[in-house]
Amino acid sequence: MKFSRKNRKGSSPFMLTFQRLCHNRVAVIGMIITLLLVLIAIFAEYIMPYPYDKADFMATFAKPSREHLFGTDDLGRDILSRLIYGSRYSLQIGIFSVSGAMVGGIVLGSIAGYFGGWVDNLIMRCLDIFQAIPGMVLSIAVSAVLGPGFGNCIIALTISMIPSFSRMMRASILNVRKMEYLEAASSINCSSFRIIWRHVLPNSLSPLIVQATMSVAAAILIAAGLSFIGLGVQPPDPEWGAMLSSGRAYIRDYPHLVLFPGITIMIAVLSLNMFGDGLRDALDPKLKD
Amino acid sequence: MYRYILKRLLLMIPVLIGVTILIFTIMYFTPGDPATQILGSNATLEQLEAKRQELGLNDSYFVRLGRYMKDVFLHFDFGNSYINGRSVSKDIFSRYPQTFIIAFFSIAFALLIGIPLGVIAATNQNKLGDHVAMLISLIGVSMPNFWVGLMLVIWFALELKWLPATGIGAPRYYVLPCAACALNGIASIARQTRSGMLEVIRADYIVTARSKGQTENKVIYRHALCNALIPVVTSAAGAFGSLLGGALVIETVFAIPGLGTYMVSAINNRDYPAIQGSVFFVALTFSIIMLLVDLLYAFIDPRIKAQYQGNARIKV
Amino acid sequence: MDKNIKQNNTEDILLSVKNLTVQYTAGGSVIHAVNDVSFDLKKGTTLGLVGETGAGKTTIARAIMRVLPDPPARIMGGEIFLDGEDLLKISEKEMRKIRGNKISMIFQDPMTALNPIFTIGNQIEEVIKLHNEHLSRREIVQKAVEILEMVGIVRDRYHEYPHQFSGGMKQRVIIAMALACNPSLLLADEPTTALDVTIQAQVLDMMTRLKEQYRTSMIMITHDMGIVAEVCDSVAVVYAGEIVEIADKEELFDHPVHPYTVGLFDCIPDIHRKTDMLYTIPGSPPDPSDLPEGCHFSPRCKYASDLCRSRGIPMKEVRPGHFCRCLHCDERLEMVPSRSQICQDDPDTADQERGKNGCDC
Predict the structure, then answer these.
(1) What ipTM score was computed for the predicted complex, to two decimals?
(2) Which of B211, B226, B313 is opposite residue C67, by nearest beta carbon?
C-alpha cells in the first residue's frame, strides 16, 4: 500500500509514515516521552539532583518534600536521582536485548523462511521447544544458569525473545516469497543472500519495527520482574525493578519507596506502547478504520 | 475432531521431550558442583567423590541425559532436592495447586472481562467510551503486575484492611493475587478483541446479517464476535504465557507457597533438580493451555475443523 | 423538487423514493453520495440503476434497507415509501421486521457476504426463523432445504460451510437467503459482477425465473447495459449521486437523451464495426466531496454551456414517462438518432458484449 503511493506528492514511504504518525496525538505523546527518557538516560549525571549512590543517614525514609521530590530510601538516598540514573539500566536492557533478538530472529527466520524444507522444519521445531516455556520463565531459567547481573539479564531476555522475532520474520518471508519480483531477481542470477538482504528484508521491515518497539516495552517489564525476584540487576544498582524489590520490605510504613519506581516503569512502558501502537497504525493504515 | 485432538496431543510429546533436553542441557553446563552443595564445603574429598558416584555425576552427558529422561518420562521422577533431599515431584505437587488456581482465575477473568470490554470499545469506536476503555487498557498492559500487586496490598490490605496481604488459605487470600495477575490479561485481551472486532464489523456478512432483520445484539455477539475471536484466540495464547509467568512473580509478592516461590528459592540455592522440575511443569501447563487454545480455535473456525473431519457430508 | 414524476395509479406502486439524500462524513470532509434521488417502482417490475462505480447506486440500495453504517453515513432527508409506509420514519424494531422479509438484498461479492463460521443451512434458517416465529424447528429446516433446492443446491450440502462452495454456488445461497421469506422487493446489488462469465448468465436466468415465480419487484444495480437489456423494465441512470435520466427500458434504449447516457451506450463495443480504440467518456467521475457547480456532468460534457455550470438542473419530462436532467434535452432529443435496440434485435451480440466488456466506463 505505502509503496504504491510512493510517487504521489514526491514523498518517500518513510515521510508518509512519519506524517501519518504525527497526526496521531497519542503516538506523538508516546514518542516525545520516549525521546525524553532517552535524553534523561544519556544526560543522567547532569540532571540528577543528588548523586544516585549518596547515602544520607540523617534523612532516611524522608517523605517526598522540596529537597527530595520523591523522598529518600532506607539509606537516605534520593529516589528521584536513583530513578533518573536507573533509566540507563532499563533502557539499555530493553534496547540491547531487543537488538540482539532482532538480529538472531532475522537470521534464523530468514534461513527458515527462505530455504524451507527440512531446514525450516528443524528450526521451527527448535523454536517450538523454546516457545513452550513462557518468556518470563525462560528468562528466569537462563539467568539461573548465568547468574544475576546486568549483562546476563540482557542475554536471558535476548534468548527468550528470539523465537517470536524468528517466527515473524519467517512469516513475512513466506509472504514476500510468493511475489514475482523475487522470481525476477533469481532469474537474473542474484545470490540467495543478496535476495534476502536487498529484496526480502526491506519488504518485511514494517511489522518487524512495530514488533521491536513493543518488545522493548515488554523487555523492560520482564527485566523489572527479574530484578524484583532477585535474578536481574542487583541492588545497590538503581535498576527500577531492583528498587522495587528493596523497597518492598518497608511497604507498610513507607509506600513511596515502591510507588515512584513503579510509576516510572509504567510511564516508560506506556510511552513505548503508545508509540508502537501509533507506528503500527501509521505503517498499516487499513487497520485504523 | 478427535483426530485433531489426537494429533495435537501427539505433537505435545516431542515438544516436552525437547524441553526436558533443553533444561537438562542448560543445567549441565552450569558451573558448580552439586556434591559440594549437598555436603557443604567441610566435606572431605572422599566424601565428595562418593557422593558424585552416587548421583552419577561422573558419567558422560549422554548417559546422564538418558537416565534423567527415563526417570522423568517413565517414573515421573525429577530426582531429589540437593538442599533437603526431598522428592522434587512431591514438592511440586504440593505447591502446584496454588499456582494453578491463580493462573486459572486470572485467565478466566481476563477472558470474561477483557472480551466484553473490547466489544464495547469496538462498537463505540472513536466515541468517549472507546477512548477511555482503550487508555485504561493501554495503562493496564504497561504496569508491571508485581507492582500492581504491591499497590493492591498497600491499598486493600494495609489501608482498608479488607483482605489479607500475604499467605494462603481461605479463598479471600486469592483475591488480591488473582486481581493483580488478571489486570494485564484483561487489558491485553480487551485490546486484541477491539482490533479483531474492528476488522470484522465492516465485513459484508455483517451487513448480510443486518439485512436479514437480525437484532443488533445478535449481529454483534453471534456474527461478528465469533469471527473476531479467531485472531484473538491466537494471540491470547501469548497473553496466557505471560500470565503464567506473571503468576510466578506474583507469588513472591504475596508470599504464596507455589511453583514460583519454589523456583526462586531453588535458583537462589542452585538446587538444579528443583529448577528443572519446576520449569518442566510450567512448560507442561503452558503446552496444555496452548492445546486448549488450539482446540478452541478449531471449534470456532470451520476451515480448520474441516481439515480434520474429512469430507463426510452429513445428511439432513 | 421532482414532483412532476409520473404518479398514475398509486396503488400499483410498491416503492416510492422521494428526494433521498445521503452524506458520508470522513475526516472533516462531507461526501455527497446520494443527492435528491426520486423514483417509483411498480409492483412486479424491475428497475435498473445504472452508473459508474462510486456513483452512489449501492448507497441508494443500502439506504432503502437502512443498513448504512451510521457514522459515517447519514440519511439527510427524503422519504422512502414501501406500500405507502415511510421506511425512514418507522422505528428500528419495525424496520427489522421488514428487512429480510418484505425487502431483501443480494450482494455484489458472494465471497464475503456469507459468514464463514456458520453452515449455509444455518444461515438460511436464520432469516426464516426471524420472520416466521410460529414455525417449529423441523418446519424451518424443511423450508430452508426447499429453498436451497430451488436455487439448485442439493440437500446433501446443507451442512457445509461457505468455504466449501464456489463463487457461483455462494451467490445461489445468497439468492436463496434473499428469497426465503418471499419478499415483495428484491435489491440486487451487482449480483453477477464478481462471478465468472459462464456463471453470470446462469445466475441471472435463475433470478429472473424466481422473480417471476414469486412476483417480486426488483431493483437491479449494475453498470452493465447488457444486464439491463435482459432483465429490466425501466432504467434509471445514476451519475454522481443523482438520477440523470429515467425511462422505460425501450424508450431509454431507443432515445437516450442525456449526454452521459449516450456516452454509456457508446462505450459498448459493436462487434460489427471495426475500431482501433474503444470509446470512453472523457474525464473521470467527480470527487463526491467536491461536486462541480450546476450540472455535475458538465466538466465531461461537450455540449455544456455556461448556464449548465451555473445552477442545479431540474428533471424534465422530454417524452411521456421519460425524464432527463439536462438543460439541452429538447435540442438533443432531435439531434440524437434513434438507437437500434441492442437486446431485441440481436440478443447474441448483447450477450457477447456483456461478457467481453462490462462497460465499466
Answers:
(1) 0.82
(2) B211
